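INTERNAL AUDIT FORM
Audit reference: QA-55
Scope: verify that the stored structure record matches its stored sequence.
Auditor: D.O.
Record contents follow.
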Amino acid sequence: MSHPAIIVSGYHWMHEGGRTIDAATDEVLAAAHREIVLTVYRLHDWVRFSRRVLSALERGVRVTVIVDRWDIQPEPSRRAALDLAGRYPSSLLIYSFRDPEGRGVLHAKAVAADSAIALVGSANVSEAAALWNYEMGVLLDGEAAASVSRMLYALAASPASESITGPTG
C-alpha cells in the first residue's frame, strides 16, 4: 500500500466495496512486530477488543493504549484491561488522558503499528462502530503512519497523560 485506503463500516458503504474497519484494524494489529500504540475514547467493548490485543502481546509486541479519562470508563472494561496488563506488565501500558484545561476530551480514534502502518478514523473500539454505525477512516503507511505514531507517543508522554500501568515517564 503506497497510498491511503478508505476504510468503512455501515451496510451501504460496505456493499459499495469498501474495506471494513474491523478488517483494517486486524490488519494493523497483525502487522506489528515490535509495537502498537492506540487511542481509545470509550472502553465500552474492551473485552471484545482485548482478544485482538492479546494476540499481539503473545507475539511479544509492546502495546500502548491512551484512554480518554480512565476514571469515567466502564468498570468491567477497566477491570478487564487491568487484568490483561497484570498478565503483561512490561508489554501493555495504559495511559489516562485528561485535558489540563478541563474542556477537551481525547476523541481521536487511531492505531499505529511499528510506525509503518496506521488507521485513523471515526470509529470507537466497539461492536457498534464495526458492524452497525456508518464510520469512515483512512489506512496509512510510510511517513504518514510514522507521523501518526509519533503524535500518539508524544501524547502518552505529555503532562496530560498519566500512567495507569507500567513504568512512568
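Auditor finding: record pair retrieved intact. The chain has one domain: 5-163.
Action required: none
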